[in-house]
Amino acid sequence: MMEIEEETAIELEEIAETSIKRYRVDLEYDGSEFFGWQFQPELRTVQGDIEAVLQHLYGQPVRVYGAGRTDTGVHALGQVAHFDAVSKYPLQVLIKALNYFLPEDIRAKKVTLTPSNFHARFSARWRWYQYRIFLNPRAVERKYGWKLRYPFAPELLKQAAELLNGEHDFTSFSGIDPETDNYRCYIHLTCWEQLDDEWKFHIVANRFLRHMVRRLVGSMLDLARGRYSIDYFADLMSNPVTGPNLFTAPAMGLSLMKVGYGNFPCLEPNAENCQCFPFINP
Question: Mean of the pLDDT values across residues 96-121?
C-alpha cells in the first residue's frame, strides 16, 4: 500500500512539473530593424523573433501575444507579452535563456507566472505612448526621435492636446484596419512636455488604433505650423471622417512606455502599485 502511494505521489509530481503554465514577459525593444510587433511571413518582427527563441527552448511552436501591436519602426520600453508552455524551466533560468538567445535589440526585463485568465492584450486597461521630437540634430539618439525642420507654435500644440481628453471617435486619425469595428477610445491623459531642445508628447488611453498616435502628432504639428486652424482639428474630432489627408509622423519617435492592468493609473488590478508620470507636477 505504501509503495502505491509513493508511486502515485511521484506521478502527480511529474504531472505538476509538466503542466501548462501561463508566463508573462515584460520586455523592451528597439524597433528600428523590425517590421512591427505582429508576425509576418518572410519579414523580421518582434513576435516572430520571440516565438523562434521559445520554439528552440521548448522544442515545439509557442504562440506569443503582445499588449500592443506596435508598427514598423516603433520602439517599446514597457511592452507586455504572454505565452503558454510546460513548466520546464525555473523563472530565473527562463529569463536568462531568453536573453541569451534573443537578439540584442530585444530584452526580457522580467518573467513571471500569471493566472490562466490573464491576457497581455485583452486584460490591459490602459497604455502609455510617448513621441519624441528633436529641435536639433542628434548623433546618438537619431533613431529614437524625429528631427523637426520647421518652427511651430507650442501653445497650439497644447490647445489641440486638450481636445483629445475623454472618450471620442478617432476614425479621422486611424489607418484602415479590417479587424477594427469600433473606433472609440478613452483618453485618460495627454501632455506636451518641453525639455531643452526636445519636445515629448505623452498620451495614455484604454486602447489605440492603427497609426493613431503618429497621425495625432502629425496633425497637431501641422496645426501648430499654421497649415490649418484649431477649428478644423476640433471638427475632425467631433465629426470623424474616413481617410482625411493628414500627415503621419515618422515611426522612429514613438515608444510604448507602459501597459496597465488596473484602473488608471494602477499597474495591476490590486491597485497597490500605480504609475507615476514624471511629466505631471505633483
Answer: 97
